[in-house]
Amino acid sequence: MKKSNKLKIYYEDKCLLVVYKDSNLPTIKSEKYNNSLYSEVYDYLHKKNQKVFVVHRLDKDTSGLVIFAKDEKVKKILQDNWDSTIRKYYALVHGQTNKSGEITSYIKETKTLYSYSTKDKSGSFAKTLYKRVKSNKLYTLLDIEIKTGKKNQIRVHMKDNNTPILGDKKYGKKDGFRHMALNAYYLCFNHPIINERIEIDTGVPKDFVSIMNNVK
User: Fold this and answer.
1) How many domains does the chain have?
2) What phi and psi values does residue 172 have, to the nearest 5 degrees?
3) According to a count of CB atoms within 10 Å of the terminal CB, is the N or C end of the chain lower?
């Protein structure tokens, strides 16, 4: 990892940039939030006379890896092949799970932007795979792979599984954790120009390990 002012850069070449987003930071600006990861990336690339294009987003409260393209062609190739990109997350959840599992549903959104699972096929199909990494009497650390990238998918599916994510104020419970324990730690994709496989793994966040170890 290379640090440049605010940015934590895990990969960069003339075509794209992969950076780490902290929790409580939106990927792009909104009326509600002035600062964003996009703004930080824009400032960094603008000084190098390079452009920036958003390839995908993470929820404001989710930390982890985000890809930005440096031209529109690269952005389009990455987005057109997004289903082949392997995306994995670590999540700390309340309660216990099986060693592994699969959660599927159709996801819809209310007018108040609350996502929920339904059997109604007019919703967006979502598929989430998980493996148990470690557990104690209170929490479980999960390794999650999403096969679809629907809004709030992991958070909704963990709620459906009765194992809500720690610190998830929207789909979880009031547990006193300031930050949501969901981290996009792994990306693997074909480089859109040189066609090499790019793999980035940031490992388990130290604060997740600390929370698990502090339960007696």
Assistant:
1) 2
2) -105, -135
3) C
Tokens of 166: 């720690």
- Active-site residue, from 13, 22, 43, 59: 59
Same domain, 64 and 133: no
Rounded CA separation 88/210 (Å):
21
Average of per-residue pLDDT values in the chain: 94
Q: Would the pLDDT of 62 be above 90? A: yes
For residues 6 and 106, what is the distance between their CA atoms, to the nearest angstrom? 38
Global pTM exceeds 0.90: yes
Say how far apart CA 187 and CA 109 lie, in whole Å. 27
Distances (CA, A) of 68 to 6, 84, 166, 185: 16, 17, 28, 16
Q: How far apart (Å, rounded) are the C-alpha atoms in residues 10 and 19?
A: 6
Whether 59 is a known active-site residue: answer yes
Q: Indicate if 8 and 68 belong to the same structural domain.
A: yes
Same-domain status, 61 and 110: no
Shared domain check, 139 and 57: no
